[in-house]
User: Fold this.
Amino acid sequence: MTPAEKLHVHHEKLIGTIRDLAERTKSDNAEASLLITFCSEYLISHAEAEEATLYRADTDTGFVENMIHEHRAIKDTLEAVGSAYGKGDSAAIVSETQEFITLLNKHFGEEENTLMPKLARKLTQEELEGLIQEAHQIEAEKKKSDLWSLFEHDHKRIDFNISRLRKSAGNSETAKGIFSKVRAQLLKHIELEEAVLFPAFGEHAAPGQTGPVQVMIAEHREITSILVTTGDSVDEKSLSKNIDALIGKLTVHNKKEEIILYPMINRALRAPERVKIFKECFEGMAAV
Ligand SMILES: [Fe+2]
Ligand SMILES: [Fe+2]
Ligand SMILES: [Fe+2]
Ligand SMILES: [Fe+2]
Assistant:
């Protein structure tokens, strides 16, 4: 494979997932959480690596400045998706997501059709290969693997669906559909915490630091018991009562994780481990 083909394969993998997450976000706004966490892990590090390698090798400063400017614009649009998501503004979520994908498609096209052929004429294949290798290395180092933000965004996604559930009261078929989504996402979230995140923290935590984990696990049992007793065939009145109970428990539980536990976990785990856990947990979240 030539260096240009390698970059193309890498781009296709990245953009394939991003396009898929953008489509999901447009049809189900809560999925913006996944789009944002995926891009902040894999796309931002990719752009930073390119600026330090491939862009630096191009002497056409006007072109390079424009490409860097496009990186900023892509990042700004992603932030605009996040702010529309925070406000629950559905029309803005859809339009900013569309704008984001349009910019990204154009930018990737320019890299493959303009930048790479230029570099291929200027550098030997070996030099270009070395540059791509260096880019991969920098990309790996620049990954933030922020587990705090990943799990906090998953809380947001579930909260978004719970508030939809609230609004759908009175339409029992819609409510049931949303409830089963909330249940699947919440059970998966708890499973990832108990089977992946907390055990990894347990291995690295200082003595006495794992107390909050035991409290969180006990609260998970209370949360799952509400989910289980609600069931599928529940009547409207008890569904509404159970949603209230669920919101009450989650509000307190999630705050404790976000303020105390997740920051501790981020600090305790080393980068290579966080990279691995981020990937595994992201994939688990995206599967439901
Ligand atoms: Fe780029
Ligand atoms: Fe790129
Ligand atoms: Fe939890
Ligand atoms: Fe959580």
Q: What stands out?
A: The radius of gyration is 22 Å.
